[in-house]
Amino acid sequence: MPLTSLRVDAQRLSASVQSLGEIGSYLDEPSGLRGVNRLALTAEDAKARRQIMSWMEELELEVSVDPIGNVYGKLAGSRDLAPLLIGSHIDSVPSGGIFDGSLGVLSGLEIVRVLREAKRTPERPLVISFFTEEEGCRFGTDMLGSAVATGRIELAQAYALTDRDGITVEQALEAIGFLGTASAPKPHAFLELHIEQGPVLLRGEHEVGLVTGVQAIRWQELEIQGRSAHAGTTPTYLRRDAGLAAARINVSLRDMCTSGDYGEMRATVGRNQFHPGRVNVIPSGCSLTVDVRNLDDEAMGRAAADLEVLYLKLEAEEGVIIERRVTAETRTVRFDEGIRTRMARVASDLGLDAHELVSGAGHDAQEWASVCPAGVVFATGENEGISHNPREFSTVAQCEAAANVLLQVALELLEA
Ligand code: GLV
Ligand code: MN
Ligand code: MN
Fold it and tell me: Domain end: 280, 298, 330, which one?
């Protein structure tokens, strides 16, 4: 299909990203930059949700909320067909930037603005959406809203998840008024625009990324129980040091990553909290999280099995007990070839240098890929593509390039 003459208004898109970024904004002292702290289902998230819903209403979209708090804004089509769904998330990690997730949701709204200005009614309905707790930072499971909407996670199971203060997802949804009743749409196709969150596109001087798939992700929460004792008087052989066991886990993970035995494995201990956490007390406990990623499901399975062996070995060697629980687990995902081919053609017709790559981060699109053809386009990021950090930054032109690919592919998919 030839390109249409429609283009996004890059300044308008950028202004909306900046404006949403003010909600939950904080000053990052070391960098002097403003970051975003908008954990899922907090007051800040609720404020950002309401801001987007008011933009949706200004655009006369029909707004609905499903039982897990995902929000949908529907632009009617000229025919009553399965909709094209465009979406991402607006929750953030506590140390987030303003682009992660938000750029995708706001690019969807920008497409509606372009259609409204052109007085164009698509054949299919278009639904712009944002999904609850994509980050998994508050309740421990990532892509939660889209996983519930697409049936991978049961609603009751999701409702029962708790944050560190024991508040359940259901209570948090109710507290902010987002315990909805609408059904999730059954889309014809799903599209997501997201920042790359890595260095590949910038290093290769590529203007957009065409995402082939997402790597496998496995998260665990570990509670290590040792024994508190005096730091000065307890001989080494009598220690049951939960902190040391945690340190050994972290070092072993790095060794696994660099060994090459597990292909392209990445591992992170993102939380590591000692109890009682005092200078002269051997830690009696340690709470930690383990995030493991791999491009290969078989290698991921081996890593998981070998980690179990490591935990047993540490229990024996350090005299500790390691309670462990898998809080999130997704296999590798491949996105739809047909959509990717369309994206590649559109990018080339727009004169953009596009590059295919696998996503290192999880995305809502990977859940929707289980129920309909799905595709993701990446915007290039500056500062080596750093993300989950206030330095996260994509220029107006970088956002514009990806948003125009999204627009043109959306226009094609909106025609039945
Ligand atoms: C989402 O940001 C992830 O952790 O992949
Ligand atoms: Mn994201
Ligand atoms: Mn993120």
Answer: 330
